[in-house]
Amino acid sequence: MVPYLRITLAALVVVGPFACAQTSSRAGFDPSSDEDALTSPDASRPSESFGSTGDAGDAGAGDASFTTCAATAVEATRERRPVDIIWIVDNSSSMQPAVAEVQAGLNAFANLIGSKGIDYKVVMLSQRGTVPTAKRYPICIPPPLGGADCGNSATFFHASLDVKSTQPLEQFLGTLGQTAGYTATEERGSEPWSQELRPNATKTIVVVSDDNSRFTATDFETFPGGKNPSNSTTLPPGLLDPSRGDQFKDYVFSGIYGWGSATVPSTRCTYPDNTQPAAAGHVYTDLVNKTGGVRAKICDGSGAWGPFFDSVANAVVTTSRVACDVQIPQPDGGVLDPEAVNVRVSDGTNPPVVVPRVASATACGAAAGWYYDDPKTPTKVFLCAASCEDAQSKGGDTPPKIEVLFGCQSIIK
């Protein structure tokens, strides 16, 4: 959902004079290619507003009736929002090799994400400890990610949870909500951990299991809350229930589990000794496919883990999002004219588009646009949801871009 990482502003870049139409009929246009959109007999601005160069033409003389304006563009520096990465690891006796791999590889995984400049936090949901029993295998994450004696750190929180083979998704939700049956004193529960999730961080969930979830992928996202269909415990609403707001919006689900076929979800993989895991984990396949996550086969053993950690880390980087609010810079001279500001967005694949200003967030609807924090004395520009999506990385070679343009009459929806 650590503080909300803002889009900060880079140095001013003069983009040269161009005229801007004062119109409410167009949701967006490309000023670099649309000649008609560059002129308007009504486009005007105070000569002392920020970005003004005083070169407006004479509105009463022939072609000069198309008033020109000089604009300055401020490009937003792309800064990613923080990410919360929640691992939930099955503690069944058959999971001993996988538990050892998680324990051995999680530090390198975190280092890879950190090396990309991402503000991350790892939450571990699994039984904590160093001493296995005949039926359960706990996890102890060593420093520097983990703290001393299997403890926590600034970037790591371990909620000790005995994860049952077919119940990871139920236990995820139950301990997240601390509902009946999932508190620290109960068999399926853990200490609270929802407080470790940061409001403005994106969410990645990683499951490690050799079985399938009895809770469906649909229920994981949309369960209304109430009695667990499988037992007498109580579960909170699913991840995408409206009551959660945007907490898990655009979350990514990844996993290493028992799948064996790219086309037949029920096919299990086969271990080198010709045995097979308990299930193919088709519920996890549903979630991986739905959210665009990555997966690996638990049967592939130690050779699968390095690439899997790398793939999850790269997916975290690729799907991390940037904030969609831009601080308006203080003008060096003159007076900032709120009516002479425009916003231009490029998604990195298409030409940049000037999007219209709307009155408020509620006026955005499903269309492109932007609005001020305060229309009378603005300090920030906020992108509407549609334009915010266009400001996110599409994974291509060219990053998306946001520019705030000064000096031209605002395009208003």
Structural account:
With 413 residues, this protein is of the alpha/beta class. The chain folds into 2 domains: 156 residues, no CATH class; 237 residues, Rossmann fold (3-Layer(aba) Sandwich). Helix content is 17%, strand content 20%. The strands form 4 sheets. It has a 6-stranded parallel beta sheet. Helix 1 packs parallel to helix 5.
Gap between N and C termini: 30 Å
- Fraction of helical residues: 10-25%
Tell me, what is the CATH class of the largest domain?
A: Alpha Beta
What are the low-pLDDT stretches, counting only 5+ consecutive residues below 50?
A: 1-67
Would you tell me the structural class of the helices and strands?
Answer: alpha/beta
Secondary structure tally: strands: 16
**What topology, given as strand order, has the largest sheet?**
5-4-3-6-9-10
Beta-strand share of residues: 15-25%
Number of domains: 2
Radius of gyration, rounded?
26 Å
